[in-house]
Every structure is written in C-alpha cells, then in structure tokens.
Amino acid sequence: MDVLIKSHDQNSLSVTFPCGFTTAMLNAVRSVPGRRWNDLKKAWILPDSGETVSALLANLLATGLFTYPETSGQPPGLSSCADDSTTVKNELSKVKTILKTRHYSERTQECYLGWLKSFFEHYDCNAQLGQKQINEFLTNLAVKSRVSASTQNQALAALLFYFRFVKNQNPVELSGVIHAKQSVRVPVVFSRSEVLDIIRHLSGDKQLAAEILYGTGIRLHEVLSLRILDIDFERNEITIRHGKGDKDRRVMLPRALVKKLKAHIENVRKIHQKDLDDGWGEVNLPGGLAQKTPEAARQFKWQWLFPQKNRWHNSETGREGRHHMDDSLLQRAVKNAILECGINKNASVHTFRHSFATHLLESGYDIRTVQELLGHSDVKTTMVYTHVLNRGPSGVVSPLDQM
Fold first, then answer.
1. Residue 114: inside a domain, yes or no?
2. Number of structural domains, the chain?
3. Is 141 within a domain?
4. Can 30 be counted among the known catalytic residues?
5. Is 135 within the bounds of a domain?
6. What does DSSP assign to residue 63?
7. Is 8 part of the annotated catalytic residue set?
8. C-alpha closest to that of 236 among 224, 248, 251, 218
9. Residue 207: CA atoms inside 13 Å, Cβ hemisphere, count?
10. How far apart are CA 105 and CA 364, in angstroms?
C-alpha cells in the first residue's frame, strides 16, 4: 500500500492512494480536520500545515499498514515500498515507457507503478516470477489487507500488464486466488420532482452545470472540462473530449437549456475579452495542441464553458489565467441543496448521472442507447440500472396492508 502526499497549491496538499486503499486508510484521512474530496483529481485535499501533516501521519501509522522509511537524509513521510534498488527502478522504468507508448492515462500509470512497487517489496524481481507469486500477492490483499474487489482487480491488471508486456509471459492459471468480496449496491436515484427541487435551490453557473449533469448524464469532471467549441447548437449536441478511457463521445444538448446556454456563453465571452484587454486570456490546451498551434490558447472557442471566478496568478512568472470552476464548489453547492430540500438519501453530484440513466430506462429507451450516452465500454456496467424495469419491492403488497 502507498500513500502519495504532494503539493496541491500554495496552501494545500493532495493525498492519493495509487495502490488502492482500505477502510482504515480512508478513515485515517477523513478524521483530519479541514479535509475535502476533489473528484476531478480523485484526491483528498488537506490544509498545508504542520499540525495537519502530523495528524495525517499519526492516523496512517495507527492503521499498522505503514512505517517511516529508514533511508537517511530523506524528509519524514510514509512508504511501504522500501526496495529502491537499481533493478526495481529499471523494471518500473520499462513499465512506464510501455504504458506511455500505449497511451494509458497518467492516473492508470500511477496506479500500475504503485502496485508493482508493492509487488517488488514482497518478491525479488531478479528471481523467476510467475503465476504462483501473482496468486500469493492477490490472495494476501484479500485475506490480510481486506481490500475491496475493485482494488484487487486493479492490482491484477497491473501485474498482468507487467508480465505480458515486460516479461513476455501470459499467466492464465489464476483459479487459486482468493477473491475479495464483491459488493453489490443499487445506485441511489433522485425522483424527477427531487431533481427539480434541487436545481431550484441552486443558482448561476452551478445551477446550469447541475442542469447539464442531469440533462446529459455526463460526469462531474466532464461537465467542468467542457470548452466553448464543445457546444453545438446547430446539431443540438455536446461533445465530451477525453472522457473515461480517454474516449470522445457525443450526448444530446437539452433543448430546454439552449437559451440559457447561449446567454451564459455571451457572459463568458465578456469575461474572456476583459482578460485579453488585460494582456492575458490564455487557457491550457489539450494534448499536443499547445505545440502545434500555441495561438489557440487565446481563441474564444478553446475557453472553458465554466471558467473560475478569479484569475490565477503565478508569483514567479507574473502570468495570470483562468482554469475551470473547481469541482469542490459544485459538489458543496449540490450537497447543501440536497440538505435544504430535506432529501434523506446518501446522494451527491454523481446521483444526477444515476438519475439520468434510470429515468431514460423508465421512459422506454433501450439499454444500448443509455450505454452509449453514459460512455460505458461494457454494457454490464449499464445493466445496474435495469432494476427500474421491474416493479421492484414497491410493486408488492405487504401482508400487513391486507390485514
């Protein structure tokens, strides 16, 4: 297990678990005052203070899963990957190179490398490794570390990648692995009236973002990553670029939002023009576009649909610019709206996506259409919403009601 602690901005730290996490690890972070979850970066954000760091380290050490590294000359931190030998570094370097050439996302690269570092803690990478070691490692995760099924699957994917593409082996006999218990949960869903009530308790950009979330079913980071050119009023479509799995897709543009979106875009245009007049107005460009056409950074079509309220300022270079709205602002606004509406469900921003899929199926749309709109690579993922196609427990008359 690893905990990665690094600077998030001038006043805060980010904490991630690249190798996956246990309930004890999660509770260790949750008990730190001032922590918040950043869904876009998939990281916990904590105040950057000595008191906070001390509390975090103490909580993590108390889980019994971590120790302070013994390497001298290093700042105190947490690590469960003690083997930093040249051989291990070379193996990890090979993995990283292949991951990049195969266009795996940075998050996947970080996750795979973290699991392999943990694997090499237990096994000498110079030895003959294969199915036996994979089975032992995965079984240990389920039995001793008590990780979730999804976390165990991440570890398996990392190990299979290493053996197939670095060692040119293809381990196939994994039947001896003790698998972590797979939890089956029904998605939390809003009723249509609850969606309307929540949206009415929001205002401004946050209300519009929430309407897009429910009206299209896209993810939180996808709505905040939208740029002006992604909105096509002629075709009534919204283009989602670099979605999960680095895939692009198109979703419908709700006609009810056309007028509101056009007015919003005109307001964004005024903000951008003011930034240009002040000598700024640039945004970060996707992929290699910055090298090919650097002038595009100042073009209106590449600006964020939901720019942050204030420009960021780099004190070293003097540069200023705007990123998109921080996901925590929308998360907090929706959470507050849910509370104000008196909705007693374990709901969040992501519940809009669950509600979108469920309401489409209730309206008679087929599962493949919903799968495509949600951007699921496997229809099995979408099948979780088919619980709405039968009457469920609400359609059964209780014997108590018949007395």
1. yes
2. 2
3. yes
4. no
5. yes
6. T
7. no
8. 251
9. 13
10. 35
**Boundary of a domain, candidates 165, 191, 221:** 165
How buried is 338 (Cβ within 10 angstroms: 0-12 exposed, 13-18 middle, 19+ buried)? buried
316, HSE (Cβ side, Cα atoms, 13 Å): 1
pLDDT of residue 74: 35
Report d(CA 120, CA 91) in Å as an integer: 10
- Catalytic residue (one of 117, 219, 227, 354): 219
- 156 in Cβ contact with 142 (< 8 Å): no
Based on the fold, state whether residues 47 and 95 are members of the same structural domain. Answer: no
* Active site (annotated) includes residue 350: yes
Question: Is residue 104 flagged as an active site residue?
Answer: no
Please indicate, yes or no, whether residues 99 and 153 belong to a single structural domain of this protein: yes
Q: Which SS3 state, helix, strand or coil, does residue 50 take? A: helix
Three-state SS string across 302-346, please? Answer: HCECCECCCCEECCCCCCEECCECCHHHHHHHHHHHHHHCCCCCC
> In terms of domains, do 161 and 96 share one?
yes
Q: Are residues 53 and 90 in the same domain?
A: no
- Choose the final residue of a domain: 123, 148, 165: 165
Q: Flag whether 366 is in a domain.
A: no
What CATH number did the domain enclosing 139 receive? 1.10.150.130
Given a contact cutoff of 8 angstroms between Cβ atoms, the answer to whether 28 and 56 are in contact is yes
Q: Which is it for strands 237-240 and 12-16: parallel, antiparallel or unpaired?
A: unpaired
Q: Which domain holds residue 149?
A: 86-165
| pLDDT tens, residue by residue, 93-117 | 888 889 888 877 777 888 888 888 8
Q: Which of these is catalytic: 104, 112, 162, 385?
A: 385
Do 90 and 53 fall within a single domain?
no
Catalytic residue, chosen from 249, 250, 298, 350, is 350
Task: Tell me which of 117, 206, 353, 359 is the catalytic residue.
Answer: 353
pTM recorded for the entire structure: 0.64
Reported residue count of the chain is 403
The string of pLDDT tens digits covering residues 383-403 is 888 876 665 566 566 665 665
- The reply to whether 376 belongs to the active site is yes
